[in-house]
Amino acid sequence: MVDVILGLQWGDEGKGKIVDYFARHYDVVARFQGGPNAGHTLYIDGEKIVLHTIPSGIYHPHTLNLIGNGVVIDPIVLKHEIQALEARGVEVKSRLFISQKAHLILPTHRALDKASEQAKGKERIGSTLRGIGPAYMDKTGRNGLRVGDVQLAHFDRAYEALRKKHLELLSHYAFEENIEHEEAAFQDAVAYLRNLQIIRAEYRLHDWYQEGKRILAEGAQGSMLDIDFGTYPYVTSSTTLAAGVCTGLGLSPRQIGEVIGITKAYCTRVGSGPFPTELLDETGESLRRAGHEFGATTGRPRRCGWIDLVALRYTCMLNGVTQLIMTKTDVLDHFDSIQAAIAYRINGQETREMPFYLDENITPVYQHFTGWKRPISEIQHAQELPAELKTYLSYIENYLHLPITGLSNGPERNQLLRRVEKPIVN
Ligand code: GDP
Ligand code: IMO
Ligand code: MG
């Protein structure tokens, strides 16, 4: 069986923590899209680890970890990540598999990302500048280099040809940066990559599936950053939805079982783009402070606001979510009152559907809830949660017609309350 864990908002929902928690029930954890724009945080016994490319199952010794064809890999980042894990005593190389078909991020992709963002000025996407957009553009433009290419004789020639094309493109921008140092690091990292387990991942995944191994697909970014259904053009360049599991791993839709959607108890966004429930006041500031809302990859402050049920209803629909897990619920502990957007008012009309353009004409319609005003991080059984929080959860469940089966009440690995007896795995 293949289950999926993915984010339903604008990323940073706490996917890494939840994948790490459930990885104990799976044999394989597989990333299917995105690249080092992701920053997935794990807290294990007080120690903080941020993963960018490596799946969040890596801290479970029995779990195999696979980077699928849908992912774009920066060999420099991957090498550092493996070395950092090894320095902490984690065995990586024997348990990490990489699809031959995953595309490579070149230093010139990163330079193009920066040049393009600079040129956009005020209209910039707020990209993580990790080269994601340019790498996916080369993939769909049929110019890309793939991990499997590093093992072939033509690699140096193909790399040089693509690099030249990029330098030509860069010459059209007012962009001056010396990337020679990064190019040397890239060559070293490619040599390192050659010694990793580069495989025909689609076949191995199907073998594992046939053998009855349990596979967990780990999403990156969030559904509202999806290239098709997100707040375009302020999105990332991959399919962040459950559909991406099929194209990004070579699995079929019929193999997918549970789709576990992760949502924060409120909402954040990093980078530019519309965010209807954003709070630009002291309450937003208070959420940022309580939630330590600073990017795991770039360190940028995250924009904060109330939970948006219109957007969540949309992303649950698009993903075929079967159950929800709410994270960072403890961040709301000290609020007197809590709000949830249940509709948008646009030109005097109320709607529960996402409009084509999310712009300043949208006013969220809020449902108000009384805060529980006591710390919940120490609670170990869902039955002991405050009544006010239970009311909040029931409202959301009724609105979305989905159960919230788990509630995260702190960053540590085991701070997760299960709300139903039904095990998450099939
Ligand atoms: P991801 O990209 O979806 O994996 O999420 P990030 O790691 O970027 O951001 C989530 C942040 O929230 C991390 O710093 C986590 O350690 C933290 N976190 C996750 N779950 C909880 C929770 O339930 N409570 C609190 N207070 N922090 C949490
Ligand atoms: P995880 O997996 C939050 C945002 C960027 C920017 C937009 C495009 O940790 O949830 P890109 O670098 O992809 O070209 O940036 O998407 N973004 C994320 N925001 N979490 C992420 O990943 C993100 N990955 C990209 O801030 O607005
Ligand atoms: Mg993150």
Biggest sheet details: 10 strands, mixed
Compounds present? guanosine-5'-diphosphate, 6-O-phosphoryl inosine monophosphate, magnesium ion
Which strand order spans the largest sheet, edge to edge or round the barrel? Answer: 9-7-5-2-10-1-11-15-19-20
Beta percentage is 15-25%
CATH superfamily membership of the largest domain, which one? Adenylosuccinate Synthetase, subunit A, domain 1
| CATH class (first level) name of the largest domain | Alpha Beta
- Described by the principal axes of the CA atoms, the overall outline is globular
Content-based structural category: alpha/beta
CATH fold naming of the largest domain: Adenylosuccinate Synthetase, Chain A, domain 1
Distance between the termini: 7 Å
Helix percent reads 25-40%
What's the structural domain tally? 3
Number of β-strand runs = 20
**CATH architectural category of the largest domain:** 3-Layer(aba) Sandwich
Number of H- or I-type helical stretches: 11
Computed Rg: 21 Å
Low-confidence stretches: none
Oligomeric state of the chains?
single chain
